[in-house]
Predict the 3D structure of the following.
Amino acid sequence: MNAVIVCFTGTGNTLRVCRALADALRAQGCDVRQELLRADRPVPDVAGADRLLVAFPVHGFNAPAPVLTFLKNIAAGEGRIAYLVRTSGEPLSFNDGAIPAPRRLLEKKGWRVAGDLHYVMPYNIIFRHSDGMASRMWRAVLRRVPADAAAVCAGEGRLPKVGFSARAASVLCRVEHPAAHLIGRGFHATDACIGCGLCERNCPQGNIRMEGGRPVFGKNCVICMACAFGCPKDAVRTGVLNGWRVNGGYAFDAPPVSDEEVCGYCKNSYLRYYHSAEAAEETE
Ligand SMILES: Cc1cc2nc3c(=O)[nH]c(=O)nc-3n(C[C@H](O)[C@H](O)[C@H](O)COP(=O)(O)O)c2cc1C
Ligand code: SF4
Ligand code: SF4
């Protein structure tokens, strides 16, 4: 059996999860091909995939626009099995609002969506989680992927029932898709910029070009935050979203937070998420 994992990522969290899933699928004897959804790469070819995994970060309770565009044009599934793989900064069920649109597009093209794999990963916008939170999130991913990979191989899975509030939040926040182009026009680099070109290379949309040693931001931004997050000099300013800017990678190998140290924001949801992942390991 073979699987194709198509991944859109801004700041690397979703790619990190996809790599762990790919390793777990290979350990199950599955042949895995990983594809990145980026403007500078060919559109992923999913012909012949026994299992298709479409992976993305939740953006404003939605799948990012490039994912929806890819799915609108995807090859016919002819009854083959697909999964959604999501990462999000918090475990709230509002994030389930990101399921219906990509699911509908896949089903319209004849794919059978058998499950939704949702992993919590640290925020790349709004605020910075502690490295200890990131580390505990990552441990939860590693605990969950073996069972998730086994379910994918078996063609099994679960799709949460998406409630009215999550659907409504998703519809309201979809304004982000057209607004992103405008908001992205407000991005610029400060004098701290050293002209390294990393932001240009990191941008999945090909929306940045270097001119005179400085990045110039175009009209195709999807607010993935790769440019601001990855800048070694924290020189990218993100217009009206600048107060929510997060810069610099997480130390996923840091000592994980204890239950008492879990951050106060949505504490109970994080605890439920961690405990369920940790219980899953114990029952394996
Ligand atoms: C524009 C934007 C909107 C986001 N919206 C949400 C959200 O609605 N819910 C959530 O839990 N996390 C949200 N996040 C956080 C990301 O989903 C999370 O950090 C994700 O793991 C990033 O994945 P990536 O590194 O593959 O881009 C958002 C991030 C961005 C940049
Ligand atoms: S990554 Fe930062 S320092 Fe490098 S070119 Fe972009 S803005 Fe300048
Ligand atoms: S300009 Fe920055 S935020 Fe916009 S798509 Fe490119 S990397 Fe992402």
Remarks:
- The beta strands are 2-7, 31-36, 51-57, 81-88, 112-120, 187-189, 208-211, 214-217, 236-238.
- Residues 2-171 form a domain with the Rossmann fold fold (CATH 3.40.50.360).
